[in-house]
Sequence to fold (221 residues):
Amino acid sequence: MHHQQKTNTKPPSTSLTYDDASPQSRAIMPNPPTLAPVELAKSYRLLNHGPTTLVTSAHNGVRNVMAAAWAMPLDFDPPKVLVVVDSRTLTRELIEASGVFALNIPTRAIAETTLAVGTLSGRDGDKFDALGLATMPARTIDVPLVAGCAGWLECRVIPEPHNEKRYDLFIAEVTAAWADPALFSNGRWHFTDASSKTVHYLAGGAFFETGDAFTVEAKQP
Ligand SMILES: Cc1cc2nc3c(=O)[nH]c(=O)nc-3n(C[C@H](O)[C@H](O)[C@H](O)COP(=O)(O)O)c2cc1C
Fold:
């Protein structure tokens, strides 16, 4: 059954602010306390350069975060994304129960955290508490967002049971998107320094940071 969720094409009009975060968490996550809404039609650009993501999820009072390198944009309008979530993860269980998740886009500054949430399982305890991660509430879904990231996509699963079961592949509609305005504005990334760059994962703790931006005109045939 193909179940298309209701689409919200307008960007959220106001910005998000931090939850009560401990002073310690704020020290670890030094981003500004507000996020700029990203026009949904441009939300795919948060993922277009292929960064590693953090998938946040929640259900029945249990919240979780895991790393996912296998996430990408799928469609412009309504914007859709896909992400591969292994069947053994707690994240998978929470997404299947709630039908929602968020893709948080971490920077190099929190690469160690990214590796940790991709190594530990929420089944062994709350990773937010264990790693001192501050969160913010999402606007359109009941899932925490990880503070200190560069961008955030709030996502609602479009059920495709075959893909989910056979390939661990989840397709979702983006219902809201946010970015740190210092790093992404007017539909473009503007990384300020190495620590603010998004990261790409190889394996075994090895990452690349996003490289220099450049623009070209199409080669004339
Ligand atoms: C950088 C990185 C990227 C990862 N990418 C994925 C991914 O795309 N899909 C996936 O299922 N697991 C991926 N993993 C593994 C999960 O993050 C890992 O299994 C995690 O411990 C699951 O946590 P949970 O049980 O709390 O949900 C990745 C791990 C790392 C370190």
Residues 90-98 form the longest helix (9 residues). The chain has five helices and 15 strands.
